[in-house]
Amino acid sequence: MQKGFKKGLLIIMLLLLATVSCFAALPRPVGYVNDFANVISGDHRRQMEDVAIALRDDQGVELAVVTIRSAAPLTPKDYATQLFNEWGIGGPEDSGLLILLSVDDREIQVEVGYGLEGVLPDGKVGAVLDQAVVPHLAKGEYGQGLLAGAKVFKAELAGEHYELDARDNEWPIAFIIFILIAVIVTYLSRRKGPKGPGGTVRRPRPVPVPRSPHRPSGGGFGGFGGGRSGGGGAGRKF
Amino acid sequence: MKKGWIIVGVILVLLVAVMSQYNNLITLETNVDAKWAQVENQLQRRADLIPNLVNTVKGYASHEERVFSEIAAARSRLLAAGDPSERMEANNSLDSALGRLLAIAESYPELKADASFVRLQDELAGTENRIAVERMRYNESVENWNRTVRRFPTMIVAGLFGKQARPYFEAAESAKEVPKVQF
């Protein structure tokens, strides 16, 4: 009886630990290139960042390159999907692209945001991996392979244009509503007549303005947010 | 006279309570339906891929008639299925038929190297991932819905308007195997 109880407790604790690590394991983004596994040289990283910044400024596409040692307890594909949606790569039009290299799983996964599924169908992503990326990865040239992949995807996306920042459209509407409410409330409270000196003028609550992370054009990394994916893309073992 | 006002007040409060619960239910139900529509999208997408895939395989392995007809049967059952639970069942039998088709492909090296077969396999794998993701999102919305519909006091309002629990979309038996933990 005692033994069974202890065993049960152990199982419950292990399960709790598993769930906690499932949710807590996802790291925060540190830039467009997130070399958590430490396998990319400084030179390759800078070149990849340049590709990512050019993609953002020219095409409105957000690219995230991530390397990890292992995706356990998830599969690399599930890890990629969760990471993509957690970080929100791609902004309001879901124009995001995640290249995830899981070094110890010896697997690369490319996750394509909803907005890019038309331009980058899974078959094309798989072909790019086969031709440009996997040959390098198989030789252990991780930085070289990821950079080559980023460049080919940039070329495939040439001529596309997406909107990364919807704030400019949302601001004025919220502002106009705010002003309208303010005017109406002031008008109504004035009409009720003064209850004391000046009357009790109720202040309207400020309308919360939707905030999106600031993306400085031409500058460095400004954070992700809002992009979604549904599991599209392709992956390869190497 | 005073008693009458109290009754009116109670009825009004109840009415408002029922109304807000009802609106809440409708929001949740719409969410479940929307998520299911996403699942259907992806199921349709896979059904559309299958004829191409089968034709490519036929080019190299024309004598594997049995698998082709199994797939064709499962596919037409999927397309004919009406309600979600029928669809889920048809989808699971399509899953196993497709698994057999891809297993056959393993023994044809030329087929495995065919560029259009590789592309179709990528599309198929991507679609399966999409189905898995949308299925997970659907199941989450169903969980939320079922909890609300069964809980007191929303249960009463749900019963009043004939709202019932929805089925989960379970994965096929083969995909369900969980690694065993031993102590």
Structural summary, described in words:
The complex is a heterodimer of chains A (238) and B (183). Chain A has a domain at 21-163 and 220-237: Diaminopimelate Epimerase, Chain A, domain 1. Chain A is 46% helix and 12% strand. Chain A has 6 helices and 5 strands, in the order H-E-H-E-H-E-E-H-H-H-E. A 5-stranded mixed sheet of chain A has the order 1-2-3-4-5. Chain A is globular. With 183 residues, chain B is mainly alpha-helical. Chain B has one domain (2-172): LemA-like domain (de novo design (two linked rop proteins)). Chain B is built from 6 helices and no strands. Chain B has helices at residues 2-60, 65-80, 84-105, 109-113, 115-150, 154-160. Mean pLDDT of chain B is 85; it is low at 174-183. At the A-B interface, helix 1, helix 4 and strand 5 of A face helix 5 of B.
Defining traits:
heterodimer, A: 238 residues, alpha/beta, Diaminopimelate Epimerase, Chain A, domain 1, five-stranded mixed beta sheet, 6 helices, 5 strands, globular, B: 183 residues, mainly alpha, de novo design (two linked rop proteins), 79% helix, disordered C terminus
What's the helix count of chain A? 6
N-to-C SSE string of chain B, H for helix and E for strand: HHHHHH
Tally of discrete structural domains of chain B: 1
* Quaternary structure classification: heterodimer
As a percent range, the share of strand residues of chain A is 5-15%
Mean pLDDT over all positions of chain A: 81
What is the CATH C-level name of chain B?
Mainly Alpha
Tell me the CATH architecture of the domain at 21-163 and 220-237 in chain A: Roll
CATH architecture of chain B: Up-down Bundle
> Quick one: CATH class of the domain at 21-163 and 220-237 in chain A?
Alpha Beta
Question: Which percent bin holds the helix content of chain B?
Answer: over 70%
Biggest sheet of chain A: strands side by side, in what order?
A: 1-2-3-4-5
Largest sheet of chain A: 5 strands, mixed
* Low-confidence runs of chain B: 174-183
At the third CATH level, what is the topology name of chain B?
A: de novo design (two linked rop proteins)
Q: Largest interface here, residues on each chain?
A: A-B, 20 and 20 residues
Rg over C-alpha atoms of chain A, rounded to the nearest angstrom: 24 Å
The number of helical elements of chain B comes to 6
